[in-house]
Amino acid sequence: MYDFAYHKPSSIADAVKLLTDDPDAKPVSGGMTLLPALKHRLNQPTALVDLSGIAELRDVRREGDALVIGAMVRHYEVATDPQIMAAIPALARMASTIGDTQVRNRGTIGGSIANNDPAADYPAAALALGATIVTDRRSIPADDFFLGMFTTALEPGELVTAISFPIPEKAGYAKLRNPASRYSMTGVFVARGPKGVGVGVNGAGPCAFRQAEMEAALAANWSVEAVAGVKQAPDDLNSDIHGSAEYRANLVTVMAKRAVADAG
Asked: What is the pLDDT of residue 258?
């Protein structure tokens, strides 16, 4: 691990100033990806800006027909918060399956969204629910936020402060985890709500994506049978020692069926 400075600001404004003044500084929330990268010397920031001391990033609140979750809310808190469990129970259930106990108690929803790991669960939920990612500068629709593997629309020094999820009528999630790493090989989040029907897929490709054919099928007939006949093309999906692109394409249909069943 290389030497670096350490800062723990108490406000979003202070954190943004530290990151703006030093372009080589990195924000850290739960550190689930950044800290291993530092240990393996894959990243060499001049400073770490620890966001855990910013109280305004830990808020969960209802705003009209949306649930706003602060970026520093941890996975365990998403899984157990009464407001989240009541408004979007599928999101709470999904959070309870992330990683292991240690990861759920350290990792944060904002860190996961900003990191955009292909196997991360939240991007699929954000896409399916039509979420908006709120930063210190602007609000970005989920459809415009996730650009590619570990790549988002965030600009240098820009911080995710909250995610606003429209509250759905129904939602469900299902995934197949690698038995060794527990990372998602393929996950599907389905939702029906004020923004229509959404189907978000994670793990199968280099970036989370929406499955438009399944959305159309569920809009016409919300049922397991509606998605059972939709086949995902294997083009551009991940292929590795754990599963071929064709295998993951089949998993999209299988997990979609389970997600619809989970939604009821």
From this structure: 98
